[in-house]
Amino acid sequence: MRISSPPPPARARNVRYPDCFEHRMENGLTVLTAANSRLPKVSATLALPIGQAHSPFDCYGLTQLTADLLREGTKRRSSEEISEEMDRWAIEYESEVTLEHTLLSVGALDRFLERALTLLTEMLLEPSFPEQELEKMKTRWRSELLSQRADPGFLAGERLSRQLFPKHPYGRVAMTPAELERADRESVQTFHATRFSPRGAYLLFAGAVDHSESIRLAERCFGDWTPPSIPMAALPEPTRHAAPGVYLVDRPNSVQTRLHVGSRCLRRSDPDLIPLSVANQIFGGGGSARLFLNLREEKGYTYGAYSQLSAFSQSGLLTAGASIRTDALSDSIRQTFFEMDRMQQEPASPDELHRSQSELIGAFVRRLETPASLGSMELVRRLYQLPENYYREFIPRIKSVTLEQVLEKAREWFLPERFSIVAVGDRSQIEPFLQELGPVRVFDGEAFSIDQEL
Amino acid sequence: MERVEIPKVSFSRHRLENGLEVLLAPDREVPLVHVSLHYRVGSSCEPQGLSGFAHLFEHMMFQGSENVPKNEHGRHVDRAGGRWNASTNKDRTNYFETLPSHFLDLGLWLEADRMRALQVTEEAFRNQRDTVIEEKKQSYDNRPYGSSHLRFDELAYRNWAYAHPIIGSEDDLRAAGIEDAQAFHRRWYGPGNAVLVLAGDIREKQALESVRRNFADIEDFTDPQPPDLSEPPQDEEKMEAMTDALAPLPAISLGYHSDPLGSPDYYALGLLSLILTDGHSSRLYRRLVHLRNRVTTVYVGSNQHKGPQLLRIWCQVQDGQDLDTVLAELEEELTRLVEEGVSKSEIEKARRKLAARFVSRLETRTRVGELLAFYAVYYDDPGMIHRELEHFLRVDRNQLQETAARILRKKNRTLLIVQPRKS
After folding, report:
1. pLDDT (average), residues B264-289
2. Most buried residue among A231, A355, A363, B406 by CB atoms closer than 10 A?
3. Mind telling me how many Å the CA of A193 is from chain B's nearest CA?
4. Of the candidates B209, B205, B181, B171, which has an alpha carbon nearest to the alpha carbon of residue B57?
5. Gap from A277 CA to chain B (nearest CA, Å)
6. What percent of chain B has pLDDT over 90?
């Protein structure tokens, strides 16, 4: 039967926000359990409120280096023995260091949980940081630094962060080779001894485990972990403002140009982030957003163009970007700013508002599907000190955003004159396009020249 | 190894009169449903001169159909709070929506509308051709090693079906026209050449009624003659070196011809790949990365084609290391495998990892739906979702060694070396 108009929805089922249980240990560590026994597997994630931005300013990357070295030797086991134990019991180990947090996790079939957690505990509390493993890791990192610099997206993001957060840890994106050389066993040991603390840390169990078992395991494994005496200093608020500018990062032989525009924006705990995220969704949040429809679906300049909000504890970023046909660089910049102006001048349509709200709510609901993704939201909420009901009230709060609020936020944040422009591509081809916009500052893709600029 | 109980996925299989295969996998825990349509057409079905067309055509499916104008498909799904996308590989093309379950009918209506008839304008066709050319640059031409990834299959396969890249050549993309799209749709995009999967919060009877309501009247015009995928045996090593101006470090790419998905070789090589590179205690990782720092990364795995496969090995040479030494050590490890086989504990580790991954892969409804569709399209047997692990676990040490000896021969291999351009 041919039906010419879209069928209406059936009655919606209620979305239930699953429980996540919490228990505070004496040493300050908080145990969380997102229980779900649908599958016989479980993960344990230790989350610490330290990230790349907490690295010493003259040794960016030390947090990551310390985290990476945890698996390279403990007082009881060599690096090889740790790897053997992981592989033998199919324990999936991951360490993720973000700008402000470190997440160390083990995942396994439920019957191997205690083994997995015991190993995680040993790596975290009794690392030996063998000199030889540190040297090997530094060699690997040297190649890694080279590889990063071959990636246009990395180069664009790095240049933008440096411009938007001068002299602030948020402005750092990668270690320099000189910093890597300076990192030694002592600095790693000291960083671990003073910064890895149960205070403000979380241990999340997600999967086939119940809360009482989580508590028992946490007490057994981490009960004796004592916090270091040095209190943790909060990150400073970025104060220095750099004037927006036009930046070119030369990447010879590029056959396309990576374009990013960005400006500073709201911090994670700012309640305005909710209406702003709806405005951003309308502007560039997905395949139905204005930026995508313009640059891809109308002009065919790119495979995809998106904008995004990144929010940290002290500040945030609003960026838009695309990989574009090089000869369309000028018009891509023009169109991006045209769409920003349109956000301020033309109110969004009711359909755009509704659709963007639905997209944000839909993405949220999908994150409730697995205990691990639910648990990671619960971790984020606590690490950023968001209100207790933040996620339970997420859906009504998104739904309550009005067209007027979207316009208001657009007029506050989608201001082209506040945005810096970064283009990564072949200098000889793109510099003339950028010069039309004003003075261009040129960088090459190598670490050393970026260094001199710091 | 201890027995691992993999939770059963409950599903039923149906076929409409017009040939549409329907798989229903109800699981009502969360209010989400994954709707996925897999068409049995991929880049291997393209005629010569139209490389990249199956993928370009995938883009056309978002450019308008009878009741859904250009870009409206995505808007409908977005309004419902769902997510949507599509992908093309060498053997099949899939289109999916993961929706709040009360929008199931909407997902089915959208898919039925574009299966029934496309309405793409000349302008939309040209626009997407430009977009795909930029996609090729973003994913391959402007990315380190991207051009070598495109080159590898051309070098390794003699049969054009698998030799040419999915993304195609820019010349062929430019030569394609809208009339090719209409013909392609008619030949490949009908109920008789598709599998529809619904996984998640559905009631089976109602869901099947809705499927019938939307799809039963679509006439099947498809003429899906599967391409000849046969690959003549390789009797000489193939070798090539190329320069990549964007590559930061040298890289080595290897491929060994082997039998199709689901063959005894496939399962044996699956275990072998785990033993060689999965985890830091695996043979190649331990030696080439951990102990000696010869390479930054090393990967081994089958390329997952329905027809003749390649066991692929890829590694990036560490800064300051000598490529010939890396290659020699790599070969030494493969020879050791052929001559000495693997230990009992190595095969145990690999089996346990597989069991754990067969559990993990059932985590989301999206994944369950895609797995059922995969087994239906590649094996014509969605029940393999429950049985495939057994095929892996049955491989024993003798079979592993025998397979390694037969496959990992120099004459059977393709070697592509990528050198950065020295500035």
Report:
1. 98
2. A355
3. 26
4. B181
5. 15
6. 98
Q: Among all residues of chain B, which has the CA nearest to that of A350?
A: B79
Beta strands in A57-131 (DSSP E): 92-97, 102-109
Cα B376 vs. chain centroid, distance in angstroms? 14
Which burial class, exposed, middle or buried, applies to B100 when counting CB atoms under 10 A from its CB (0-12, 13-18, 19+)?
buried
Over residues B158-190, the pLDDT tens digits come to 999 999 999 999 999 999 999 999 999 999 999
Secondary structure class of A438 (helix, strand, coil): coil
Q: What is the pLDDT of residues B366-388, one digit of tens each?
A: 999 999 999 999 999 999 999 99
Contact A302, A324 (CB under 8 A): yes
Shortest Cα distance from A136 to chain B (angstroms)? 7
Cβ atoms within 10 Å, residue A181: 11
Q: Look at strands B309-317 and A302-311 and give their pairing.
A: unpaired
Which residue blocks in B9-88 are alpha helix, DSSP H? 53-60, 72-80
Whole-model pTM above 0.90?
yes
CA distance linking residue B274 with residue A158, whole number of Å:
35
| Cα dihedral value B20, B23, B24, B30, nearest 10 | -110
Bridge partners (DSSP) listed for residue B251: B316, B418
Indicate the length of chain A as a whole number: 454
pLDDT band for position A451 (50/70/90)? very low
Which residues have a Cβ under 8 Å from the Cβ of A177 and sit 6 or more positions away?
A142, A145, A447, A448
Question: Is B61 at the interface with chain A, CB within 8 A?
Answer: no
Distance CA A406, CA B299 (A): 47
- Strands B194-200, B32-39: parallel, antiparallel or unpaired by DSSP? antiparallel
What tens digit of pLDDT does each residue of A359-384 get?
A: 999 999 999 999 999 999 999 999 99
Question: Given the DSSP bridges, would you call strands A41-48 and A202-207 parallel, antiparallel or unpaired?
Answer: antiparallel
B275 CB neighbours in chain A (<8 A) are: none
Report the C-alpha gap between B255 and B237 in whole angstroms.
10
What token pair was written down for B157?
A: 């396969």
Residue B153, phi then psi, degrees to nearest 5: -65, -35
| Predicted complex ipTM | 0.95
| Partner B, chain A 87-146, Cβ-Cβ below 8 Å | 87-90, 92, 107-109, 111, 136, 139-140, 142-144, 146
- B330 to chain A nearest CA, in Å? 18
